[in-house]
Design goal:
The chain contains six helices and nine strands; from the N terminus they run αααβαββββαββαββ. By secondary structure, it is α/β, with parallel strands linked by helices.
């Protein structure tokens, strides 16, 4: 009888662990499930999860709750605005006051990032999230699509591995190819986005500046090695 009780207890524990695993997996997968629900309403909890997820890739405005849309009819949207060119139905659009972000929850990648241009003549996609996820005044998403660019990344701090970590984050953008990853010659108090394209990649430069909260300039700081990339990023403190 005692052996039967022990076996029963083990079974109960295993069932409990399995149930906990399933619950945890379902919770972690809640954002990915939105990919199969274009136009779905997004809960306040899911908005918070999205902001936390996006914050792993880039700096987002603090204390601001974005408008969130699970995109649908993206083929039609792409005809109206090139920003949606690489988006698919089920991707998630986040609109902050100063930038628009398209996020693919299935692959955990950023599809597009761009600055917001105020334009009351261009409506937002239908299906805006719950009232808890609103921005006043609501901006229209008319950022230019980033051009394909090659980006060199250098660590301008004393923190080891920062250039590599930044490069890993940046290559999640489908429009970025990472070139060299190295240390800068000096230390920098802020992140520099150095446009070496001769002004031919303005949307990519703006998107990188928004993503990294960096300062844009067109010349490499004195003493730093040259670069053959379109954009040189020197990560600051």
């Amino acid at each position: 009888m005692r052996n039967k009780l022990i076996i029963a207890a083990v079974v109960i524990v295993v069932v409990g662990i399995s149930a906990a695993f399933v619950w945890s997996h379902q919770g972690a997968d809640s954002l990915a499930k939105l990919a199969s629900q274009p136009g779905a309403k997004v809960s306040g909890d899911q908005v918070d999860q999205l902001v936390a997820r996006i914050s792993q890739f880039m700096n987002v405005p603090s204390g601001e709750t974005p408008s969130v849309v699970v995109l649908q009819n993206t083929a039609d949207l792409a005809k109206q605005q090139s920003f949606y060119k690489d988006a698919q139905d089920g991707d998630i659009l986040l609109l902050f006051s100063n930038r628009a972000i398209i996020y693919d929850a299935l692959t955990n990648k950023l599809v597009n990032v761009g600055p917001i241009v105020q334009n009351s003549a261009t409506p937002l996609p239908d299906g805006t999230a719950s009232a808890s996820a609103s921005v006043t005044p609501s901006p229209s998403a008319t950022p230019g699509v980033p051009e394909k660019v090659k980006v060199d990344v250098r660590n301008g701090t004393t923190k080891a591995g920062l250039a590599g970590a930044t490069a890993s984050t940046l290559k999640k953008n489908t429009w970025i190819t990472i070139g060299s990853v190295s240390d800068a010659k000096a230390t920098y108090t802020s992140t520099l986005i150095i446009d070496l394209s001769g002004g031919t990649k303005p949307n990519a430069v703006a998107a990188l500046a928004a993503q990294l909260n960096g300062t844009v300039q067109t010349t490499i700081p004195k003493g730093e090695a040259s670069s053959t990339a379109d954009i040189l990023v020197i990560v600051g403190q």
